[in-house]
Amino acid sequence: MSRPSSPAIRTLIGPGRYVQGAGALGRLGEHLRPLGSAPLVVADDVVWGFAGHEVEASLRAAGLPARREGFGGVPSAREVDRLVGVVRQAGADVLVALGGGSTIDAVKAAGFLAGTRWATVPTVASTDAPTSALAVIYTDAGEFEEYRFFPRNPDLVLVDTQLIVSAPAHFLAAGVGDALATWLEARATVASGSATMAGGLPTQAAAALARLSWDVLWDNALPALDAVRDHLVTPAVEKVVEANTLLSGVGFESGGLAAAHAVHNGLTAVPQTHGLAHGQKVNIGSITQLVLEGAPTSEIRDFVEFTTRVGLPTTLTEVGLRPSDTEELARVAAAATVPAETIHSMPFAVSAADVAAALASIEGFSRRVRAEAGLPEPVPFTGRH
């Protein structure tokens, strides 16, 4: 699962070019042209329905063919292999992911196997997948299977913030959940001296970007979400999109992952959580990590209150579980603590029993914090957003 590393080497990696702003999609062809002459865009039918026309126009204006392939919905080994076959048959030399994190991970994995360059064009700011040199591969049923690592990051990451604000606000909220974990996990990795996903020790630059992502989100997430609900691009939106995508992307990859994402991976092992966004499950992982750390009560309370206001789950109820689900929590904890998991980057040993206890404990604490803050009671998750 982990990239080979040297304990004496510090490493920072990132995308070849990052482009962000309202209307950026219209310049896709301009930025793809230096990368190749035969692009293939991968997008599902929904995404292609609202973005395909502009993509085609931009590619044709740059003298590039406008070819598109559909996406199957889950970045599984089967879907990746299917896309590799399509790429080779089409003779594509640049693979472009247009969509969310699942499409992006599948394209990165397929581009590597097919020997092409690859670019990512996220249509939501819901994960930090667009910038990284790794993909999360799931089973066809949606359970975490493995991380796949690649020798380079995307050649291009292009983010049109006008597209981002056209999507429902819960996508941006999920990205906030994913990005907030970046600093919590980076500081744990720095403290333990563990290797990162980039293949070395954390750099000061990556840790600083992780902390910057955290600070930007605490200052801007709530006004940005208000703006997105009105489909407006504001300075707060631009800051949050950059924090969710670039700052968190470089910050997690070269700063380190720890318990929060391991708990996310564990949560995918129980069917009750299927249908939740990546960042929603990560937020439960972040709270679990804070509990495992024995963080000050005030810090955990502030995190629960803030992320509840963002619209993220802060109780087991909201991810389809209960503290009394001992069998399911044990399964989550076991998956989160397998030998190769990132939870072992914590600066202390963590057992499956520790994780199960921490998970069970957050329900009562979070409910009390929410009640004291006058926030709504948790709504049970039933498999649909």
Automatic annotation (TrEMBL):
GO MF term set: glycerol dehydrogenase (NAD+) activity; metal ion binding
Cofactor: Zn(2+)
Domain Alcohol dehydrogenase iron-type/glycerol dehydrogenase GldA: 15-161
Cofactor binding annotation: Binds 1 zinc ion per subunit.
Record CDD domains: GlyDH
The keyword Manganese appears for this protein: no
Transmembrane segments: none
Lipoprotein keyword on record: no
Binding locations of glycerol: D128, D178, H261, H278
Keywords: Metal-binding, NAD, Oxidoreductase, Zinc
Pathway: Polyol metabolism; glycerol fermentation; glycerone phosphate from glycerol (oxidative route): step 1/2
Enzyme Commission number(s) from the entry: 1.1.1.6
Residues annotated to bind NAD(+): D44, G101, S102, T103, I104, D105, T123, V124, A125, S126, S132, L134, Y138
Catalyzed reactions per annotation: glycerol + NAD(+) = dihydroxyacetone + NADH + H(+)
Family classification: Belongs to the iron-containing alcohol dehydrogenase family.
Listed name of the protein: Glycerol dehydrogenase
Source species: Kineococcus rhizosphaerae
